[in-house]
Amino acid sequence: MDRKLIKEVRPLGFPWETLDPFLFCAYHRDEYPEGNGSMGLSIDKMQGRNIGQDFHLKDGYRMYHGQRIPGFPYHPHRGFETITINKEGVVDHTDSLGASGRFGAGDVQWMTAGKGVQHSEMFPMVNEHAPNTLEIFQVWLNLPAKKKMVAPHFKMLWKEAIPKVVQKNDAGRGTETDVIAGNYDGIQALPPTPDSWAADPLNLVTVLTVKLDPEASWRLPATDPAVNRALYFYKGSNLEIDKGQIPVGSHVVVDAGQDLEIRNGHSTGFVLVLQGRPINEPVVKYGPYVMNTEEEIRQTMRDYGRTQFGGWPWPEQEYVHAQDAGRFAKHADGRVEKPQANTL
Q: pLDDT for 143-155, tens place per residue?
């Protein structure tokens, strides 16, 4: 019997629903105005906002949990990983291990929370005389039970090193694919963090962002049908898959055991691809904690109450770096790395 290529199509919500081994994906696009000189919002632009819990899109942006600067002040995680893909804007990272960093458009931060870490993700408005648009994805990738209590770790995938596959058809219509995890068209991504589910190539974890010119086509070859494969069509007009029309704002689950071909509509299209072999273990979530049992969640809460996962070594909850800091990563061992072209 022939299998259907498209298993399911549903509208994108917030956050985006994902399939095992992923937990969810949060997509943020905020068109922040010019900064106030302290990388935050001026007082007049704070009016009418539920500061501290500002998730309602007003005037094109949100403050999230930020009081002065938009973003997510320090908060704990245990038992999973975050993959933060930055497409536009600036993200400042600090954590309870003393590590820190700033990454910009095109960069990716991969963080294994493991046995527990606190971190802050702030969106400093570094431009005082121009808009500060932010566009990021944060993908939560689960860890198997045997890896949930590994030591926390983060690494930067700088845009200069992330493989990009550019393809054009006879009419000059092209696609650009950023290979963030896995392998595409024979091009291998940079290594993920060492304890990641993605670190084992047998798990076929693949994370791609795809930009399609109007009327361009893009192909993803078949793989093991036991793998979960989903597309997130978040910007554009429409896609054609298997002779069916897919509207923008769609989550599309497809059969990974069949070749996938996409034909884009009349405007530039943008797609996120998440693929991976399922972990197939129980998932128990409580806010920022993801474990396998309710008792493990209770133990996590006791552990955090006792240790604060190392405490907070920074002078502010929503700490940001110097306005002219450029892109960098300072690791817990004191090692500092910078990309080849250290500009925003």
A: 999 999 999 999 9
What is the pLDDT, as a whole number, of residue 50? 96
Residue 343 has pLDDT above 70, yes or no: no
The H or E element containing residue 303 is: helix 294-307
Q: Which CATH number characterizes residue 52's domain?
A: 2.60.120.10
- Residue 293 falls within a domain, yes or no? no
Nearby residues of 63 by Cβ (< 8 Å), 6 or more positions away: 41, 46, 49, 51, 54, 70
Task: Kindly state whether residue 122 falls inside one of the protein's structural domains.
Answer: yes
Residue range 65-95, pLDDT digits in tens: 999 999 999 999 999 999 999 999 999 999 9
Domain count, the chain: 2
Q: In Å, what is the CA distance from 12 to each residue of 24, 45, 287?
A: 12, 29, 21
Q: What is the spatial distance between Cα 76 and Cα 288, in angstroms, rounded to a whole number?
A: 6
In a domain, 145, yes or no: yes
**Domain-located, residue 26:** yes
CA–CA separation, 34 and 127 (whole Å): 6
Whole-model pTM: value is 0.96
* Alpha carbons 9 and 17: distance in angstroms, whole number: 12
> What span, in angstroms and rounded, lies between the C-alpha atoms of 232 and 249?
7
| Segments forming the whole domain that contains residue 74 | 22-157
